[in-house]
Design brief:
This protein is about 35% helix and about 25% strand. The chain has 18 helices and 22 strands. Residues about 1-60, about 255-260, about 485-495 and about 650-665 have low confidence and may be disordered.
Length: about 675
């Protein structure tokens, strides 16, 4: 085979001219100096410097510019900004270059090389704090001119809801130890494959395994196991794009003489990659392909159940996970089924599955995911003790109006025909709010009070904070974090908590009870119409259902956390279907907490940010009244001066020592 010529660096600009001129002088000396004796050379008149010879006259090839660029993302497609990129073209004259991605996750660089270079070997390695390394390598010819590299960086911590790469490799390793299940392979390919197996699965060195596995694939392109194991090794070393290409090749094989050429493993791996991308529907399609080939494949059944959980299709997920456990799936399948059963409010079956997971061991001795799920199960069992509770949804309207003075002037209705439309419109607004809300800051003033039995103020304290709402986009869930800064600054007076007051927070999330994702966890009732500050509103009552509630509040005190369910009222704008006011109360005082009352009254107001065209309705004034251990606490919150800020600002602030301020009672 004809080898491509070696590549050499070619200087540019002024340096190029100097090189050309020196070529001309060397030519003159070579043609004349050899014919002169030394004495004659010393007396010879100065030679006129000839005009520089052109590259064509010298037989040299014009220089060539090679452009290397790329795009680096996380698995879900988000740009990996400020990632460190190392580009190495394997030439001594060009040491590896250190680059950094821009805000779009892009990088680019150029090389000027001797024109005789017909092929370039490039390796790109990307790193970023908190992520595994990404790597890609390729050779491209000069007629291409440019080459794009796409790298994917996986988070080191990983998503606890997704299958880790180590678990995927461990599950598939027994199946992939020997090649040729779809047909015989050559002796040389088998030898390369076994060396790759030894390096990857036995010595846990994916980097050393890749060359041997790549040779096996080159020798036997139709070896599905070869491509599947190579893809796993490439994923281990950060070669997401290379792994994907191998898997797609493996799933696209049509070899008439090998009827069993297709195997489920490539489809399984592709499905897992799609869950990492937060594309559970696409993942389900790959898992179904795997099940068509192997209907009783325990891993395919398990991961189908996982993908259905990510789509919140709890009933179907439970069915697949039950089949997975019957087929001998790992403990992960039982854990996933416990989660699905809890969402289906089947606490009895969930408790039975959890006992099989524990196998007599103590929860505290189990891994973190097991402990978290066990805690959720225990919480559900506590809430189950609520039993049948009389709420504002079932309470006679006349009794409710007498108990809640804010309902004075209500025009009652018994017709619930309009309720489904109202819940849909309000839910759409709440969903849009949390989808588009930017990271915001505001000034927060809190007046914390301790009341006497007659309702008069016994003691009070006023505090001010910078209040931050940080949205963390999660494709399959909602995550909003609240922070208070300036709590423990040097020279500041003791905070309210240290002085015996009660801190409260979590008001922005209160409207999530009306989010389409959570409406099934509550019962609703249209009470009627009422004017609020001269504006026509619908009044809706709601109460969380102990057996199905998905959003569970917490009452944190003395190092203990008690689950809390609520009921309440909302006043909804009759034209925009925006929540203008919201009041919540305990559905029932939680046992063994000495918490007797927790009433939260939230007034919303419209906020317009100059950076965002759409206005948002945010809490403006909040009053929280808590009765605990025979004492009454009242907190008055006021928010103003709303602004948009970047997440990096919050991260830098936390790095300097400020921590999230969690209220003792969270709505």
């Amino acid at each position: 085979m004809t080898q491509p010529p070696r590549c050499f660096a070619l200087p540019s600009g002024l340096e190029t001219k100097m090189v050309r001129r020196s070529f001309g002088i060397l030519l003159l000396v070579w043609t004349g100096a050899a014919l002169m004796p030394a004495s004659a050379r010393a007396q010879a008149p100065s030679a006129v410097t000839p005009a520089p010879l052109s590259m064509t006259q010298l037989g040299a090839t014009p220089e060539r510019i090679w452009t290397i660029f790329g795009h680096i993302t996380t698995p879900d497609g988000k740009p990996a900004m400020e990632a460190k990129v190392r580009v190495d073209i394997g030439l001594a004259a060009f040491p590896p270059r250190a680059l950094e991605t821009n805000i779009q996750g892009n990088f680019t660089t150029q090389y000027t090389l001797d024109g005789s270079c017909k092929m370039l070997s490039v390796e790109v390695v990307a790193t970023k704090a908190g992520y595994f390394e990404g790597r890609a390598a390729a050779e491209f010819k000069d007629e291409e001119g440019t080459r794009e590299f796409r790298l994917v960086l996986r988070e080191e911590t990983g998503d606890p809801d997704l299958l880790p790469l180590a678990s995927l490799v461990a599950s598939l390793a027994p199946r992939l130890r020997a090649p040729g299940a779809g047909g015989p392979v050559s002796a040389s390919a088998h030898k390369d494959y076994q060396h790759g197996v030894e390096q990857f699965l036995d010595k846990h060195s994916a980097a050393n395994a890749i060359p041997s596995l790549a040779k096996a694939v080159e020798r036997e392109p139709n070896c599905v196991e070869c491509r599947a194991l190579l893809s796993l090794a490439q994923l281990e070393t950060g070669g997401w794009d290379s792994a994907t290409r191998q898997l797609l090749e493996a799933t696209d094989m049509k070899v008439p003489e090998r009827a069993s050429a297709q195997r489920p493993e490539p489809f399984l791996i592709l499905g897992v990659l799609e869950t990492w991308r937060h594309e559970p529907k696409t993942a389900s399609g790959y898992f179904q392909k795997a099940l068509e080939l192997e209907p009783a494949d325990s891993l395919a059944l398990q991961e189908t159940g996982r993908a259905l959980i990510l789509q919140q299709n709890w009933e179907a997920a439970d069915q697949y996970l039950a089949k997975a456990t019957e087929a001998g799936a790992s403990r992960d399948a039982r854990l996933l089924r416990v989660r699905a059963l809890l969402e289906l409010s089947d606490t009895a079956e969930a408790e039975s599955e959890m006992k099989l997971v524990l196998e007599g061991r103590q929860p505290r001795d189990m891994p973190a995911p097991v402990r978290r799920l066990y805690a959720q199960l225990q919480e559900r069992l506590q809430l189950k003790a609520y039993g049948s509770v009389k709420s504002v949804v079932s309470q006679p309207l006349s009794d409710l109006v007498r108990a809640v003075p804010e309902l004075a002037g209500l025009q009652p209705t018994s017709d619930q025909g309009e309720l489904p439309r109202l819940l849909q419109r309000v839910g759409e607004g709440v969903e849009a709010f949390f989808r588009h809300l930017p990271n915001t800051s505001s000034r927060e003033e809190i007046r914390e009070e301790i009341l006497r039995r007659d309702g008069k103020v016994q003691d009070s304290l006023e505090e001010q904070f910078l209040y931050l709402l940080v949205m963390r986009p999660e494709p399959l869930d909602l995550e909003l974090s609240e922070y208070r800064t300036g709590v423990e600054q040097p020279g500041a007076k003791a905070t309210g908590i240290k002085l015996g007051f009660m801190r409260t927070s979590g008001f922005t999330c209160t409207s999530l009870h009306f989010h389409p994702m959570y409406q099934s966890g509550a019962a609703f009732r249209l009470l009627g119409r009422q004017k609020l500050n001269g504006q026509e509103t619908f009044v809706i009552s709601f109460a969380q259902r102990p057996e199905a509630a998905q959003r569970i509040g917490r009452f944190d005190v003395d190092g203990k956390s008690v689950p809390v369910l609520v009921q309440g009222l909302v006043w909804v704008d009759g034209e925009k279907y925006q929540i203008l006011r919201m009041r919540t109360d305990l559905l029932k005082p939680p046992p063994n907490s000495r918490l007797e009352r927790q009433t939260t009254d939230i007034q919303y107001s419209e906020v317009q940010f100059k950076e965002v065209p759409t206005p948002f309705w945010l809490p403006r004034e909040v009053t929280v009244t808590v009765q605990w251990k025979g004492k009454t606490f009242r907190n008055l919150h006021r928010y103003f001066d709303f602004r948009v800020f970047k997440v990096e600002t919050e991260e830098r602030r936390r790095a300097k020592g400020s921590t999230p301020e969690a209220g003792r009672t969270v709505n």
